[in-house]
Design brief:
The complex is a heterodimer of chains A (867) and B (443).
Chain A (H helix, E strand, L loop, with lengths): L11 E2 L6 H9 L5 E6 L2 H15 L6 E2 L4 H6 L2 H15 L3 E6 L1 H5 L4 H11 L6 E5 L8 H15 L10 E5 L4 H14 L3 E4 L24 H6 L5 E5 L9 H9 L3 E4 L5 H13 L6 H16 L1 H4 L3 E6 L1 H13 L3 E7 L6 H9 L13 E3 L4 H10 L4 E5 L3 H7 L3 E5 L15 H32 L28 E4 L8 E3 L23 H14 L3 E6 L9 H14 L4 E6 L4 H11 L1 E7 L5 H7 E6 L2 E4 H21 L3 E8 L8 H11 L3 E6 L16 H11 L9 H6 L25 E7 L5 E2 L8 E8 L2 E9 L10 H14 L5 E4 L4 H9 L3 E4 L2 E2 H15 L1
Helix pairs in contact in A: 1-7, 7-10, 12-18, 14-15, 19-20, 21-23, 22-23
Chain B lengths: L11 E2 L24 H9 L6 E5 L2 H5 L19 E2 L4 H6 L2 H14 L4 E6 L1 H5 L4 H12 L2 E6 L7 H16 L8 E9 L5 H11 L4 E6 L4 H4 L5 E6 L2 H15 L3 E3 L5 H14 L3 H29 L3 E6 L2 H14 L2 E7 L4 H10 L5 E4 L3 H10 L4 E4 L4 H6 L3 E4 L10 H16 L12
Parallel strand pairs in B: 2-3, 2-4, 4-5, 6-7, 6-8, 8-9, 10-11, 10-13, 11-12, 13-14
Antiparallel strand pairs in B: 1-12
Classes of the chains: A alpha/beta (867), B alpha/beta (443).
Chain lengths: 867, 443
């Protein structure tokens, strides 16, 4: 089950897995002369072909039984038989793999029985039929791959005559890695059978003659011989016993087997070589040198690799193997996730990562999970401070949103070239992968270290230096709506701890959010997701504000967590928050250390007796204070908090709500006091008398009064004049204003004669339709030397192939009526009978294939010459 | 080995005659059709709606293979680039998936502020008896959102049926927004804003003073779509996918439509003028003529530079629908390139007839062709370049034939005047690449 870290538990959001037939087809590509037919809808085959074609850059031909509605209801045997027959005619394959899909399994197709009947009715057939049960919902491509291998081992007639060979069974490894494996076996002198062997079929050469049937791969005879092999090595950590070919060969023919991990970590590569050695293989000098070179390289890059905090995702075997590689190199696999359901996964992966806890003393936690999707992987990556992604190209969305490098080294890769040549196995393959990992980190450092360190340490030589790198005021409130930065408000703070008389709790605080718009409340995780969404659309998103709908400090855990999550993935964004200041003395230090740079405090009075008219209550340390006591506590804390923030260099803005008859004459005093505390800017805002609030009967402060108050206060403290404009644009409205009233351009006065043309056009651009097929004529008008489209006129279609003469002549009459005001009919072709009927009415006929405007011009010339 | 199956013969027309083509039928089993399915057709049309939640109700495969693979761009929400699937498992198949679907929509409505949800029911949902209509109805009632079922099991027809389902879904979305007021401007139907193409067209129209109300479905959102009924005119570009919608809108809202194409120099020019004329906007028509003259003059030196490198070559085309094939033949012909093989996945009889009029008497015309046929005819006719989709690309390369990606995944515009330059360059850079010289010979 999907873990409940987000409220979305019933949906897979951005799958980190594919379906069983995908795995099955991939495995069958490693068999010589094999073609696969998927028993199901046409789309399954096409989608899988498209996925494989972009990854492998090879033509991938997969047939479908193309089940229809009828086949779904009455059974698909007819389609399947036809499909196999046709596939044999087109490709003459040695093997036909028949993989089922969701649909075939759900309607209960008995494929083995169908194939048995097929064999009976086609006694001369050369091809071997293999049936793979692979409903898309029973597992992922990982399971589908092994199911196909198991089906091959079970269904090919065995030849258990001892042959001294070693069976090597693998999951979905790349063609290049398969070639490496074959070279290794030959170098060590091991006579082996590889199941499957995709080395040629999924990474072919350029041949003078293209052959659509792929002849590389393991042959049927070799698969038969697997029963007589002396040993099997199955390279898969998590292949289920039930679908393990090695297990089958042991149970059926007594071939012993060894299970090994994918040889990616030094330990696992050594294990493979040692296993082959114990089977009589020779460890060559060249191999030893290769190992030595790998050790040398591990040392060379170990300090860089210690900086790695990776998210690894993909098939269980892959994730386990890469985790091992990272752990050996001191790199931190912070997120290890697979899309498959894999019971032993977490325990085995944890055992790889555990030793790192003694090494990475402050690298934080690790998360290991199966049955995951990319929505979760992205959240984990953000939360666990990941700096690198390792997996398939499907991680590109996470990479784009979190701005992280992605090392693409697993199927599928759609956005890079060379999926078929990815190397991860053996000393040199692992080293290729390791170098890619290291270099991704090095590139990141190289591109950012100057700027980062400048930002961190350079505090400026007062105002003598102005460079492009120098931090400029990015906050829109403080810089007069700088166009350079957009802001986002994240509503993560629902609680409030004072009651203002102008506020009704069930609405947003009118101070900091637009009144009348009740916000959704976001969890910190959702807030992060929203931030990422917005950042993806607005690249200059520079400021994150936490502004309610309550008070940002009333439940500080939420505010702190939100800031922390966002800071982890965006080092540059500015944080600001707004508060009534009641708890400011408690959290000022933490705000400073979190890197909050801008704080807005709402101060409506600096005199408790005035404050008491504005605030009805303050809840402070568990006690409710009313009247002047409450207002006095609030004021004292505002002063203490602001003083602390200003001392730490944080920019403080003061919001004051102007309430006529209560604090309007007191505002200059407020501004003066705030100037004295070191506040940067003041913002006088109008009272909005919210219905249901204590102040609902008061007058709204008008713009003129606000302007006058700002003018009066400007000499005391710099005033903000651009508040509202910013708000409306906080995240940007995207609708284009297209609703302005219909105003048609004046038409030129009519003069001169008008000539109309009726045009048969299918495309609407060309005269490209038979007269008889026309369902609507485009009417063109010639007037004052120019040709323009006038309208469409519907007509009954003259030719349907079904009508008798009487009906047709009725239709012709209707057409003649419709075009009677036209001088000419233009069609691509026209029969004699309508042609004569039109001419009898004095309507000319012009047949052509041309652009409509050109054709009308030609017809016009023809008409004029006739006259 | 055979190349042509008996059942396929009626869908292969030689001698440049497209009349009487065997088309608009299911694929032949085992023929290795290049077609996708009903679900694919529906998803292609609706997916660019940026702020909708597109939920695939079924096992994971269909969602996994259609996740963020297309080049439709957005100026607003990025939500459509995510994949949402109920990811049905064995237990769901046995006990039914409707509850899971219902819970999924609840979660999106409650925690993701969903306003618009499309539920694509794939092969299994219908077979196991999930009442997707009822789930959607209930969700709309409960949450005051739009939840629109798209029942698109792959076996229920071809991609074309999927287009119709998408059009029906769109009608269902906009029908409640029927209004007597009118917005000055047009809807663009059948442009998916691949590589920003809808924006290019929109910019052209706005230069003529013609606002664009909404597009189906490039860069569309719930807010823009519900304004559609108020627009003055529908411009229908990709007719195969949205002609049906234009007809529905004409019947329901009285919105007239004209067909347009913004591919190729002639089509762009006439489409702009026709749009202005159809609106009865003389000023726009005048501006269009000026704009076209300016753009064509700008393009002339470019075309003159490239044409000598292209003239006399031969092209093969295998694309999704008739609209694209016809437009490509004409664009090639404008470059001096002859089309010798042309096929589509889901063309209609009229399309093939027209194709027959456009190509030479030697050309081969195919419906729902497979790799063996493409291979044979491209070789036989000596094609220098193939225009097609992702699946056809590796075949062309294996045969040493140049290739142009004319699919929904591309990241460069092929529409508009800039599209002409991109298209011409791409053809040239593949067809005349030095790489092709090394494919013969050996060591």
């Amino acid at each position: 089950m999907k873990k409940e870290i987000s409220p979305i538990v019933s949906l897979n959001v951005n799958p980190c897995k594919m379906c069983m037939p995908m795995g099955s087809v991939n495995a069958l590509c490693g068999v010589a002369g094999c073609m696969t037919v998927l028993h199901g809808s046409q789309g399954c085959a096409t989608y899988i072909r498209r996925h494989m074609a972009t990854h492998y850059n090879e033509p991938i031909d997969i047939a479908s039984s193309s089940l229809t509605e009828e086949g779904t209801v009455f059974g698909g045997e007819k389609n399947l038989i036809k499909g196999i027959e046709n596939l044999i005619k087109l490709y003459d394959p040695d093997v036909v793999g028949v993989s089922t899909t969701c649909l075939a399994e759900t309607i209960g197709e008995d494929v083995p029985a169908m194939l048995a009947r097929f064999r009976e009715s086609h006694p001369d057939m050369r091809a071997k039929l293999i049936n793979v049960t692979s409903a898309g919902y029973s597992g992922t491509q990982f399971e589908g791959f092994f199911r196909a291998l198991r089906a091959l081992a079970e269904q090919v007639e065995p030849n258990n005559c001892p042959n001294g060979k070693v069976n090597i069974i693998t999951g979905q490894i790349s063609p290049a890695d398969t070639r490496w494996l074959k070279d290794l076996l030959s170098e060590m002198g091991i006579d082996a059978i590889l199941l499957p062997d995709v080395s040629e079929n999924l990474d072919g050469t350029h041949e003078a003659e293209y052959n659509r049937l792929k002849s590389g791969g393991v042959t049927l005879a070799e698969i038969a011989q697997m029963a007589g092999a002396r040993h099997t090595i199955e390279i898969s950590t998590f292949a289920a016993e039930e679908y393990s070919p090695a297990r089958y060969l042991l149970d059926a023919f007594g071939v012993p087997f060894t299970r090994l991990n994918l040889p990616v970590s030094l330990r696992d590569i050594d294990a493979l070589i040692n296993a082959l050695k114990s089977l009589g293989g020779t460890v060559t000098e060249r191999l030893r040198r290769e190992r030595g070179r790998y050790l040398d390289a591990m040392f060379d890059s170990h300090k860089y690799n210690a900086k790695v905090r990776a998210a690894v995702f993909g098939e269980p075997d892959f994730v386990y193997a890469v985790t091992g590689l990272l752990a050996e190199n001191g790199a931190m696999p912070s997120v290890c996730a697979t899309g498959s359901v894999c019971p032993g996964f977490a325990d085995k992966v944890r055992a790889e990562v555990e030793p790192l806890s003694e090494f990475h003393l402050d690298a934080g936690n690790v998360i290991i999970a199966d049955d995951e999707d990319f929505e979760h992987i992205e959240q984990y990556a953000a939360e666990y401070g990941v700096n690198l992604l390792i997996g398939s190209g499907d991680g590109r969305r996470v990479a784009e949103r979190l701005k992280l490098p992605l090392v693409r080294c697993a199927f599928p890769i759609h956005d890079h070239i060379g999926g078929q040549r990815v190397r991860t196995l053996g000393y040199d393959g692992a080293l290729t992968l390791l170098d890619r990992v290291t270099n991704a980190i090095l590139s990141g450092v190289e591109e950012t270290f100057r700027e980062n360190l400048y930002e961190k340490y350079y505090k400026g030589n007062s105002d003598t230096k102005v460079t492009g790198n120098k931090p400029v005021e990015k906050h829109p409130c403080f810089s007069g709506c700088a166009k350079s930065s957009a802001r986002i408000h994240l509503p993560v703070a629902p609680k409030c701890n004072i009651q203002c008389n102008y506020c009704v709790r069930k609405f947003d605080c009118p101070n900091e959010s637009r009144p009348g718009v009740t916000s959704e409340i976001l969890t910190p995780r959702d807030a992060l997701a929203k931030f990422l969404d917005v950042r993806a659309q607005i690249p200059n998103l520079g400021v994150v504000g936490i502004a309610g709908p309550g008070d940002a400090l009333a439940d500080f855990d939420l505010t702190r967590e939100t800031i922390r999550l966002i800071r982890q993935i965006d080092k540059d964004v500015l944080f600001c928050l707004s508060t009534n200041g009641l708890l400011l003395p408690f959290y000022a230090e933490e705000l400073i250390s979190l890197g909050v740079t801008h704080v807005t405090v709402t101060v409506n009075a600096v005199n408790p007796s005035i404050g008491a008219k504005i605030y009805s209550r303050a809840e402070y340390l568990g006690v409710k204070y009313n009247g002047e006591t409450g207002a006095a506590i609030l004021l004292a804390n505002q002063i203490a908090g602001i003083t602390r923030l200003v001392a730490a260099g944080i920019k403080v803005k003061v919001n004051t709500v102007m309430i006529k008859g209560i604090n309007d004459r007191h505002i200059p005093e407020v501004m003066g006091a705030m100037k004295g505390l070191g506040c940067e800017i003041g913002n006088i805002m109008p009272l909005i008398p919210v219905v249901g609030s204590a102040f609902e009967a008061l007058d709204m402060t008008n713009a003129h009064e606000i302007a006058a108050a700002r003018k009066e206060c400007e000499p005391i403290l710099t005033q903000m004049y651009h508040c509202r404009q910013c708000r409306a644009d906080a995240i940007g409205t995207l609708d284009n204003d297209i609703s302005f009233k219909f105003r048609n351009a004046p038409q030129p006065a009519a003069s001169g004669a008008t000539t109309l043309f009726a045009v048969s056009s299918e495309s609407g651009v060309l005269v490209d339709q038979h007269f008889g097929h026309t369902k609507a004529f485009c009417i063109y008008e010639y007037k004052n030397g120019s040709i323009r489209f006038k309208e469409n006129r519907k007509v009954p279609q003259y030719c349907t192939g079904e009508d008798d003469d009487a009906v047709q002549s009725g239709k012709m009459a209707a057409i003649l009526k419709t075009v009677e005001d036209c001088a000419c009919v233009l069609s691509m072709r026209m029969g004699d009978s309508p042609r004569n009927a039109l001419r009898a009415k004095g309507i000319q006929v012009y047949t052509t294939y041309n652009r409509i405007e050109d054709a009308v011009n030609e017809a016009l010339t023809a008409l004029q010459s006739r006259r | 080995m055979n190349t042509i199956l008996e059942e396929r013969k009626s869908s292969i027309r030689q001698g440049g005659d497209g009349s009487g083509m065997g088309c608009e039928r299911g694929s032949v089993a085992g023929a290795v059709s290049q077609r996708a399915c009903v679900y694919c057709g529906a998803r292609v049309v609706l997916n660019p709606i940026t702020d909708a939640f597109h939920i695939v109700h079924g096992p994971i495969g269909c969602a996994s293979y259609t996740w963020d693979i297309r080049g439709s761009l957005t100026s607003g929400s990025e939500r459509y680039r995510n994949s949402y699937s109920t990811d049905l498992r064995e237990q769901d198949v046995i006990f039914g998936g409707a509850k899971k679907l219902s819970a999924a929509i609840d979660e999106l409505a409650e925690h993701r502020n969903a306003k618009l949800v499309f539920v694509y029911a794939t092969c299994i949902a219908g077979v196991i008896g999930d009442d997707v209509d009822a789930v959607c109805r209930e969700a709309e009632r409960k949450h005051d959102i739009r939840a629109i079922p798209v029942k698109a099991p792959g076996f229920s027809g071809t991609k074309s049926q999927g287009y119709r389902m998408a059009c029906d879904a769109l009608m269902r979305l906009i029908l409640p927004h029927k209004s007597d007021s009118e917005i000055r401007g047009v809807n663009i139907l059948g442009d998916f804003n691949l590589a920003g193409e809808m924006w290019i067209i929109k910019n052209y129209l706005e230069r003529l003073g013609i606002p664009v109300v909404s597009a189906v479905t490039g860069d569309a959102s719930y807010e823009t779509l519900i304004k559609m009924p108020m627009a003055q005119l529908n411009l229908v570009q990709c007719a195969g996918s949205v002609n049906y919608l234009a007809k529905l809108m004409e019947a329901e809202f009285g919105t007239p439509y004209i067909k347009v194409s913004f591919f190729g120099i002639e089509d762009i020019g006439s489409s702009l003028i026709r749009t202005a004329d159809a609106l009865g906007d003389a000023r726009a028509a005048r501006l269009a003529r000026e704009f076209i003259a300016e753009k064509e003059a700008e393009l002339a030196p470019f075309s003159a530079r490239y044409r000598p490198h292209l003239e006399g070559k031969r092209a093969a085309i295998f694309v999704g629908g008739g609209f694209k094939a016809i437009s490509l033949i004409r664009q090639f012909s404008a470059m001096g390139i002859e089309t010798v093989v042309v096929g589509t996945q889901t063309g209609q009889p009229e399309d093939y007839e027209l194709i027959g009029q456009l190509v030479g008497s030697d050309a081969v015309i195919l419906d729902d062709a497979n790799p063996s046929e493409l291979e044979q005819f491209m070789r036989e006719k000596g094609a220098d370049i193939l225009v097609g989709g992702v699946k056809e690309r590796p075949l062309a390369y294996k045969l040493g034939i140049a290739f142009c990606d004319h699919n929904h995944e591309r990241k460069h515009a092929l529409a508009g005047y800039e599209g002409i330059e991109n298209f011409t360059r791409e053809i040239h850079l593949s067809m005349n690449s030095p790489v092709r010289r090394y494919m013969e010979g050996g060591i």
